[in-house]
Fold each of these.
Amino acid sequence: MTRIRRTLAALALALTLLAAGGCGKEGSPPVKGPSPEALPAYQVATGFRLPASPTWRKAKRRGYLVVGVKEDQPYLGEKDPATGRYSGFDIEIAKMMAASLGFDPKTIRFKTIASANRETALQNGQIDYYVGTYTINPLRKRLVGFAGPYFMAGQSLLVRKDENDIHGPQDLAGKTVCSVAGSTPLMRLQADYPKARAVAYDTYSVCVDNLISLQVDAVTTDNTILLGYAAKAPNELKVVGKPFSKEPYGIGVPKKDTALRFALDDAIRARERNGDWRRAYNATLGRSGVPAPRPPRVDRYPAR
Ligand code: GLU
């Protein structure tokens, strides 16, 4: 097939999926998008001050927070193209953090930042903090700070529903596997499974389009992200095998802003204690089928 024909075929399939989602195709479960009514409202801290944080001071002067997120990850960080509104578990985490920092969550300006650009966005002050399936690891900790973790994910594999050869990462030799530039799953794929043919794009949704249009054999990233895509297209896609890594999600902050990092650590703990974390999970990520786990322990590491 020529490139154009392949693209057209992918487009047709995407439209079919869209139509199926819209009117509930017979025999398929209804698409369970996060319903905004069920979302918790977060109490905004009054009189909260954090003068030791340059990021917080700048946001106060500006009057609102700028938060980096993803826009194409169902149940996590998703932007509605019609309304421009963002929804998902990471969006809820961003909102509850804003409320704890004394900002009305409704005033947040969300900014979509791809995996490969997160560190520079934080270093350049383009965003105040980042909430978007952002794995805490030593390499990244050299460049940015991390509050949390607030969730534990694990690398997994997404394949087409009719795929019979791939059951786990051991089956990837000779297969074309798609992931995202600047992500930990891509690095692990290249380092630990060198016999797989790795392909990298800027976003996971492009990988999924490529999977549906038969241009790649699998997509690899966190189970959370993949379960979201599978839940949206249960007749076309499935997640296989057990997670084969630990991906602790943190909130990225500018590296030197320890005051902000500690305030967010406190806020995560408080929101886990008062039930907001669980309510947010149930209204978002929980809808892709996995019941609320126990959140991991916050790692309040010292300033460095
Ligand atoms: N959690 C992984 C990472 O931070 C994969 C998801 C993503 O690219 O955001 O790289």
Note: The longest strand covers residues 144-153.
Amino acid sequence: MAKIICVLYDDPVTGYPASYPRDGLPHIDGYPNGQTLPTPRAIDFEPGSLLGSVSGELGLRNYLESNGHELIVTSSKDGEDSVLDRELHDAEIVISQPFWPAYMTAERMAKAPKLKMIITAGIGSDHTDLQAAMDRGITVTEVTYCNSHSVAEHVLMMILSLVRNYIPSYNWVVKGGWNIADCVARSYDLEGMNVGTVAAGRIGSRVLRLLKPFGVKLHYLDRHRLPDAVEKELGLTHHTSLESLTRVCDVLTLNCPLHPETEHMIDEKALANFKRGAYLINTARGKLCDTNAIVKALESGQLAGYAGDVWFPQPAPKDHPWRTMPNHGMTPHISGSTLSAQTRYAAGTREILECYFENRPIRDEYLIVQGGHLAGVGAHSYSAGDATGGSEEAARFNK
Ligand code: NAD
């Protein structure tokens, strides 16, 4: 019998939904690279229901308990008196979502001698100290591709909302105004702009593909170059340095994982190389950027806008400066947790658990760390080390 701790975000303030705006979800055949959707033996939830919050339990309780395992589901994750810290001592598996991450630091792993696997129900395992997991032989997995397209759609929405000055214009309507000049004095067309992505993996390449019909010039930086045919089809310019990319881009979107190579890649020095009035969209990870450098760049006009849904730490303290900086379009971390994405990552989490308990191999594409090394997607997209430093600040949200 194994003990599994599942850390999920809280239910809606109005309570767990009794109904949804739509019935069911559209059917998707598979992912563009031929990867199949998650293939658990069964699911015990209604596709399209809220699975990522505490009462949704990722649809796992029936499966785990009927196989004799213990499931603890909680949103209490930060600070030494959290349920997560209290329950860790005999846990075998910890599951959490990047939206409400259980920061699995080396200290926490040291408190959990039976810990064998950490599952990210989503994509992005930077909330786990990957170096400590390697050192302790703990497996780290994520549900690769489950929400890559969800995020790409969000990136597109945020690019358009910044460039067209959507949020302030919407606010004039809500305030009862009709202030055309106030709205359009910051509004441009996207057509003709140079748009670049840092990383052209699953999300980044989808973003490039979605942007193509807008008549923009497309650029990317990635440590793995895309095939020639894709570069030609999309008319991409490949860059080998951040400086060369930022020098030409009117809009830059960040789509790489957070790991020691990418932590704070957008700092004051990097921002000085941006075109004046560039827009920066970051739905990848908050810590890719230096928090105060972003605020300063918005205040000086070096950036015309910043939007995204990722912060560090999460939840962001109430006084986090990104809540109040000028010309931002921030939301809480939501882009990868649509009801559509939740169905896929809940099913993927179940698939990973079934493989683990039945001693079947976990798909290579779900592996980040295994057997003391970066493995699978982890070896392709991450670098060794730890990016969880400072995560204890998340406890301040509740104070
Ligand atoms: P992916 O593994 O398909 O792509 C990652 C890409 O980043 C790879 O092509 C890799 O070569 C590139 N990369 C890694 N280090 C780099 C570096 N130093 N410089 C340039 N490129 C580098 O992953 P994905 O599905 O595209 O997701 C990317 C990231 O987006 C995740 O790791 C996660 O942090 C974030 N994400 C956010 C949300 C959300 O809800 N906001 C959801 C999913 C993923």
Note: Residues 122-124, 147-148, 151, 198-204, 221-224, 255-258, 261-262, 283-285, 309-310, 333, 335-336, 377, 381 surround nicotinamide-adenine-dinucleotide (CB under 6 Å).
Amino acid sequence: MSNPLYDALYRKHWGKSTPFLQLANGSVITHDDHLQLAAQYANLFTQLGLKPGDRLALQVAKTPQALAVYAACVQAGIVLLPLNTAYTADEVSYFVDNSGARLLLCDAHRVDELTAVAQSCGAMLESMNVDDSGSFDDKAKALSNVFDTVERTEDDLAAFLYTSGTTGRSKGAMLTQANLLSNCQALVSEWEFTANDSLLHALPIFHTHGLFVATNVALLTGCKVLFVPKFDVNDMINLMPEATSMMGVPTFYTRLLDDARFTHELAQHMRLFISGSAPLLAETHVQFESRTGHRILERYGMTETNMNTSNPYHGERRAGTVGFPLPGVEVRITDSNTEKSLPQGEIGDIEVRGPNVFKGYWQMPEKTAEELRENGFFITGDLGRIDEDGYLHIVGRNKDLIISGGYNIYPKEIELLLDEEAGVLESAVIGVPHPDFGESVVGVLVSDGQTEPDVDAIKQNIAVSLAKFKHPQKLFVISELPRNTMGKVQKNILREQYEKTFAPS
Ligand code: MCA
Ligand code: AMP
């Protein structure tokens, strides 16, 4: 039976006692351990009535078992929908309902809160615990650790990743086996990963970066993963001597630089430091090189496209740029109005095409048509230019998006909630520079002239619906929003006005 993603990432590890995951406490999970557990999970999917093509929503802590759920989904042809553990029940409800997920797998401590969500969406609910108790593991333990891999083609769906839009409603980006496979193959070859690598993995596994970039690269090569539950500077420093490489968002690098224990000596043996998901300040790049002698390799990706471009492994890693298109990926810069390609050096829309580009948004053909052209180019919403040496520079965004510590936050989603609050006529949510997270969220409210908005009460009210990383860190009340002659709110003016909100004093 052919199942291209399973064959490339997992089948070759069958029966191998090579280390896959090394945990912070030193214990090791071999490839064989991992795949036997995955097969038990796949058998449980079948027992629960899940069929190939069904969606499984996964909102659990970062554990080896969570990665085994991913492997089981690939083996059983189930479409994985990983969810940020910070999402509230309201947020989870939308994803389960919209995707039609048959099963919601959650952390045991959230069962009470999510039972009603699963019921109202017609999904089954199972739970997991970090220590492999929980209803899901209890049932799986009794089952066979051998599973007949389900046949799939490269065009079959492997995952849904939700990404918000300027309208505030999240869209399920449908990723095929070919999208994931082609991308990790390109990355392994560009970044020269081999079985001898040891990858320090502190990213969450519910987004592209930690799951499809870091984990897939490791599985494809068979290298070892130093697997820590989240970024903790002490773990990073303790484990770095055992690592050859690490991947992170810019906050990882600024936090390491803020720690005096992160020295030239500690980093000397490392082969590669990779950054992405948010802009790496040129200043961080320079500081990092002067501290460690390493130049961080910055690359550029999106949920809908996996990775698009990368600075070179050999050759100049140019600060402030995201390098060159990956093998098989085309990048062009176009004029927003005419859709025509612009001459080299000019700023325009960044568009990408290649085997990495997703199939479309789940049940949203109009949204798909707005962003994915018939000729296969995807309009990223990022603005950029290509310099005389071919390096891509991202110079801004054509979409209203805040990236805080590598997490994407869509202002519209927060504005819709703020506008509902007592005393608020209208609102604008902006991102302003933040020393730790790169950008952070600020809300600007206009009073309705009758009741003065109660900022503290508003913060508490919206917290019920929104994951913590989306909460405005500051709310300001002003008399009116700046608008242009077309009536559009001029967020650039607000961003300038509140630019220093989080500046170190
Ligand atoms: C945690 N908090 C945050 C964030 N993370 N607030 C804003 N932005 C964040 N990113 C909240 C916590 O709930 C906490 O609230 C408070 O901020 C401070 O927590 P702290 O302990 O300092 O944070 P942390 O837990 O250490 O997390 C920071 C982090 C983490 C390590 C930077 O956010 C992270 O791992 N980010 C990586 C995101 C990522 O993988 N992005 C890839 C997306 P309180 O104290 O009130 O409880 S994939 C992608 O973008 C594309 C495809 C690509 O190109 O890769
Ligand atoms: P997401 O939709 O979560 O996948 O986030 C994708 C967005 O993150 C891109 O459209 C960019 O705006 C941003 N992004 C990712 N990598 C980089 C990078 N290296 N530099 C600047 N922005 C980046």
Note: The radius of gyration is 23 Å.
